[in-house]
């Protein structure tokens, strides 16, 4: 399966094999990040992203085939992210996939980007259904119950900013650069996480939703109150913010796992984490402790497969292809597409 991903700022293509047994093998996984294109703007500029996808995608696909040691006409089918995401970029990948599918007479799989994140742990860790997924990336923060291929139930989502976005905005207001998550984590190592008490929006409510915009505002007000900031102030704010977020994620994940246990009594509790924020060691440590306490299994795929990549799209395509669930060439790109 060829997989193509262009829904945000990664131009990516991969070749993945799925055995009858369910085992997955990544034959190649080429990702070109557009960090340089967007660096000057402190965030992803959709028009620039789409143009860069046009420039690089053909080369990335050719490289994925070369590294896998196959010709394009040897793949069984072609999968591409068809949404949700920045529509210009999605159109580039999906249209390229359609053109190749038409020219080569291969089936097309129009993949939901969230579904691709959700199924990745089956490729890397052979996880069996059902399981709970926590997706925390620059564009999404949600809990999804994964019952089977194509059988998903969203249990909660953010009502404002995504978690990665909150990290990026906090980094920006602390002048730490983009992408913000890794920068905040690095600076936070020198900080005192107990110095500031930031709010935990929604946390007293039972629902499994997130809200990060009030937290971000509280961080901004604190930074303005202290200005000009010393290096120690910046480190303490970053550490306090990161700790607050880790607590929010832990509390919500506990609730989600308890709901999972109630719905599937006697079944193994499995929590799969996906998205770029999964790279955060403070958050991952909190989740590990929680899962140990509850007797749940925490599954964090290798971080290169947690962030956007082509292999996850190829794998989701392969899972759907095995079920005969292909798409017509008239499938249209979808900027919004909840699971
Ligand atoms: O999944 P991803 O690569 O792209 C999508 O948004 O789909 O996630 C990128 C996000 C960015 O917001 C970035 O700041 C955040 O993940 N991130 C982190 C860390 N590494 C990346 N956030 C917190 N801590 C990190 N170590
Ligand atoms: Zn993603």
UniProtKB/TrEMBL annotation:
Q: Provide the protein's localization.
A: Cytoplasm
Where do the annotations place Fe cation binding? 113, 117, 308
Q: Which Gene3D superfamilies match?
A: 3.30.420.40
UniProt binding sites for substrate: 135-139, 168, 181, 185, 280
Query: Which InterPro entries does this chain map to?
Result: ATPase_NBD (IPR043129), Gcp-like_dom (IPR000905), KAE1/TsaD (IPR017861), Peptidase_M22_CS (IPR017860), TsaD (IPR022450)
Q: What is its EC number?
A: 2.3.1.234
Q: Which UniProt keywords apply?
A: Acyltransferase, Cytoplasm, Iron, Kinase, Metal-binding, Transferase, tRNA processing
Domain (Gcp-like): give its ranges: 26-315
A UniProt-annotated Pfam family: TsaD
**Molecular function per GO:** iron ion binding; kinase activity; tRNA N(6)-L-threonylcarbamoyladenine synthase activity
- Catalyzed reactions: L-threonylcarbamoyladenylate + adenosine(37) in tRNA = N(6)-L-threonylcarbamoyladenosine(37) in tRNA + AMP + H(+)
GO BP annotations of the record are: tRNA threonylcarbamoyladenosine modification
Q: What does the Swiss-Prot or TrEMBL cofactor note state?
A: Binds 1 Fe(2+) ion per subunit.
Protein family per UniProt: Belongs to the KAE1 / TsaD family.
Q: What is this protein called?
A: tRNA N6-adenosine threonylcarbamoyltransferase
The organism is Devosia epidermidihirudinis
Lineage of producing organism: Bacteria, Pseudomonadati, Pseudomonadota, Alphaproteobacteria, Hyphomicrobiales
